[in-house]
DNA sequence: GTCTATAAACTGATAGAC
DNA sequence: GTCTATCAGTTTATAGAC
């Protein structure tokens, strides 16, 4: 699938393989074969596998920031948080897990430089959820006795775990359960026909 | 670390490496080196890596059943569920993730036979949590408007995700947040000094 | 049970030609 | 940018001796 930029193709492909199979289960040979070049040519674009992984993760972090900017336009904290959960559902529908969750599960095998974008991805996500929850509690949109940090901190692992487990069992029902539990904790009633 | 049974040593070691580094990041060479034999000798005990993985996972499923039997003795549903969460905390304290969570994140790269014990592990865990929640709701120990299945289904992914993310960031605080959110959803107040 | 020897394939990577 | 050629090391596995 050649698009305009070979480098971008490789980033896309690598990201997809990491989200589908894991960092330690893809090789330059896989990449090269799918894009129609030789493995040595991949090294022209990315000197090492570590560098490729780093660039994939950095771009993913940028994409998160872009999403957060888009979601800032939404009319309510509920809508913002639904959009956040929705992005995980999109990933699930592709038969993939979050790139960051995939990297996190392989963290002990990754070299140091990639740790910081992984870290920042989680940090930023959590921080953003905390802000949403806090704003919703202050405006009266949400109602909860628990501290907003506790609620917010439990959402991220839930979503990551739901994606990881859903490919084995449960499919979309896990994510639905997580979403319902979370919004119920915020006192948001489930909207049904 | 030679104990009585070499086969058991290899199972223990393999399990540890999968929980710490992932299935695709350990080799027969690693195993052999640590146990002090050659890789060919490992093949005497386990014909293939797939078979080894399968046996590790089967044993882990047996260990779960044993835990559930032990926890049946506990005096309340709250105690049972705290013990369940506690077992995840033990794993976290070892710097590891759940074997099943690790396998699940690599599911696309694993051959068919290992799928069923992974599946059963999740199935059994969820089923058990549902039973606890249901019993607690019926006895009045818990209080919730959400269906017990929804609550129970959201716990497992939360715990798995918390372990996976905790090695990157947050440490034990993620698991604590998950635990507090879960028990709050059941109307169980946090016990503090 | 463990060893040596061996195999075929793969892995990440480099050098240098086109 | 991509190729060929080549590299050293790893990975999973088998055959057969001790």
Explained architecture:
Two copies of one chain form a homodimer. With about 190 residues, the first copy, chain A, is mainly α. Chain A has a domain at about 55-185: Tetracycline Repressor, domain 2. The first copy, chain A, has nine helices and no strands. In chain A, helix 4 (about 50-70) runs parallel beside helix 7. Chain A is elongated. Chain A starts with 5 loop residues before the first helix and ends in an 8-residue tail after the last helix. Chains A and B meet through helix 6, helix 7, helix 8 and helix 9 of A and helix 6, helix 7, helix 8 and helix 9 of B.
Features:
193 residues; homodimer; 0% strand; Tetracycline Repressor, domain 2; 9 helices; mainly alpha; DNA-binding
SSE layout and pairing:
The structure is a homodimer of 193-residue chains.
Chain A: H1 6-20, H2 28-35, H3 39-45, H4 49-71, H5 77-93, H6 99-105, H7 115-139, H8 148-166, H9 172-185
Chain A binds a DNA duplex (18 and 18 nucleotides) through helix 3.
